[in-house]
Amino acid sequence: MPRPELLEQIYTIVDQIPAGRVTTYGRIAAMTDGATPRMVGSAMRHLPEGHQLPWHRVIAASLTLADHGGAERQHQKLRDEGVMFDSKGRVPAHLVWPD
């Protein structure tokens, strides 16, 4: 798990991702003071109980969903926000936040 101050940075960034948009583990890591994409993934896997963070808007650098137990739920939540996927399961690049 990332240090508490990195966790706070990661969660603050994730909370800012607009509905209908996505960002990557790497982009979030680059906006922090030293987190790695792997640390961002760990933070997403260990979200506190009862959180309201839009975890489903964080995807892999390939613009696909990471292979994890919640991938089907993540896919549905993104589709519910109007995010479309191409035939290879990728999100269009124009939906990546920030611009």
UniProtKB/TrEMBL annotation:
<dbReference type="InterPro" id="IPR036217">
    <property type="entry name" value="MethylDNA_cys_MeTrfase_DNAb"/>
</dbReference>
<dbReference type="GO" id="GO:0006281">
    <property type="term" value="P:DNA repair"/>
</dbReference>
<dbReference type="Pfam" id="PF01035">
    <property type="entry name" value="DNA_binding_1"/>
</dbReference>
<protein>
    <submittedName>
        <fullName>MGMT family protein</fullName>
    </submittedName>
</protein>
<dbReference type="InterPro" id="IPR052520">
    <property type="entry name" value="ATL_DNA_repair"/>
</dbReference>
<feature type="domain" description="Methylated-DNA-[protein]-cysteine S-methyltransferase DNA binding">
    <location>
        <begin position="8"/>
        <end position="83"/>
    </location>
</feature>
<dbReference type="InterPro" id="IPR014048">
    <property type="entry name" value="MethylDNA_cys_MeTrfase_DNA-bd"/>
</dbReference>
<dbReference type="GO" id="GO:0003824">
    <property type="term" value="F:catalytic activity"/>
</dbReference>
<keyword id="KW-0227">DNA damage</keyword>
<dbReference type="InterPro" id="IPR036388">
    <property type="entry name" value="WH-like_DNA-bd_sf"/>
</dbReference>
